[in-house]
Structures are given as structure tokens and as C-alpha cells.
Amino acid sequence: xxxxxxxxxxxxxxxxxxxxxxxxxxxxxxxxxxxxxxxxxxxxxxxxxxxxxxxxxxxxxxxxxxxxxxxxxxxxxxxxxxxxxxxxxxxxxxxxxxxxxxxxxxxxxxxxxxxxxxxxxxxxxxxxxxxxxxxxxxxxxxxxxxxxxxxxxxxxxxxxxxxxxxxxxxxxxxxxxxxxxxxxxxxxxxxxxxxxxxxxxxxxxxxxxxxxxxxxxxxxxxxxxxxxxxxxxxxxxxxxxxxxxxxxxxxxxxxxxxxxxxxxxxxxxxxxxxxxxxx
Length: 279
Hints:
Layout: H1 3-13, E1 18-22, E2 26-27, H2 67-70, H3 73-81, E3 84-87, E4 94-99, H4 102-111, E5 116-119, E6 124-129, E7 135-139, E8 142-145, E9 151-152, E10 162-163, H5 166-169, H6 202-217, H7 223-238, H8 246-258, H9 263-277
Parallel strand pairs: 6-10
Antiparallel strand pairs: 1-2, 1-3, 3-9, 4-6, 4-8, 5-6, 7-8
Helix pairs in contact: 6-7, 6-8, 7-9
């Protein structure tokens, strides 16, 4: 039995759907009967487990927790040639925030709550309890891996797994259309509800606003979406305790307008973010 198969069986015993990856961190290709999805794939491709075909077909959807499937003759060749082991985060009830470089890690430390962390070749995986839509390149160096996606298994990591925060969910949210909406003006601070501030020092908020300004300023494309997601991330972290002031929001609006956004679009994006978060 290969070491990769042993790892997969250990994961399966803990309820984590596992599958083999070949060189290049890619799933094994579909068998001839499933090539080009000729078999129709798994129903809706929404849950982990084997295809009706006994081989490890359909990428992430092949991930299994049944040791009879993982240890079957049909999977033997894949394990023999496997380069590593992957798992389906969504099937395990978690979300992986995949941080590819030091800049992405720095952003996460300023924006996301501490959680279980796994070191990767180039960066870190931050693991949160809860599932969400998967998406690549939600910001420079950051991918979200959860439902209908796979992630490499690189060990348990360190730290305590935290609940999936709104700031992570916000990364994959597209700004609602503002077509047909009445013009809005920004005359008062559009901060969130007042409550107890959980931040230890004012410097935490100051760093967060500075990071948000930098993210908007460095946007090289999709400026509308970047502005909206940045507003959403700021509000998800700071919008409920009332620590945002008109000065903070004005700084964000100024950064957005310097990238070509109109005052109206800034106000619409901020209002849409407040609505999305229920603030």
C-alpha cells in the first residue's frame, strides 16, 4: 500500500473526502467511458464520491470517504502513480483560503481572523469552519477552495479552526446591479450598527483602512468589482461596532475616485455592501 493511499484512508476515517493527484497537482483524467463527460458525470456534480464508473473520474467529485472505494482495484493505478493527495474541502465542511505569497499572507493577517494555518510551498492555507462558493483569483494571490473544488492535503497545520468570516464570503460576492436606482449622495458616514468594538487598538482599524486604500489603488482591472469587494471587506470587519468615521469612508471614496469611479458609484457600492451584510 502506497503512503498516499494510507494518507487518504486516514482522511476518510475522519470524514474527509480524499482523492489522488498526479504530477502538476492535477486530478487524474476521466476514463474512456467518462471522457468529455460522456457519462453525464455525477448528478449535479454537487457531492463528493465516486462516479457510477468505479474509477476516480470527474476531478474533485471523485473524492471519497468509503475505504472500499479508495482501496479498490479500479483506483490502484491512480495511487501507484499519484504525486500527492487532495481532499474536497466543501465535503469536509471547511473552506480553504489559499494564500500564494507573502503579500497575500500580510493581507489575510490584517483582514481575516486567525484560524488553523497550513504551510504550503509558496504561502499558506487558512482553514475555516463552514463552506462557501469556490473562486480563483478573488484578489492578488488569493483563491477560495470549498464547494466543488479540491485542495492539496499538506497536514493538519497549527492553530484552532475558526468559523468562516463574512470577510471571506465577501470575496466572491459580485456587486448587485444598480440599474434603475435613484441617484444617491454621500452626506453622512455610512457606517454600520453601533456595538462593542472588538478591536484591541486603534492601529488595527488604521491598518485595515490603509490596506483597503492600497488594494483599490493597485487594482489593474475590474475596478468596479475591486471597489465593491473592498468596501464589503471593510464593513464586514468594522461595520458593526461603529468605529468607522466619515474620515475613514472619505479616504476609501477618494481612493476609488482616483481610479476613475464616480461619487455616485462609490455611494452605490457602499450602500450595496451595507445591504448585503444586513447593516
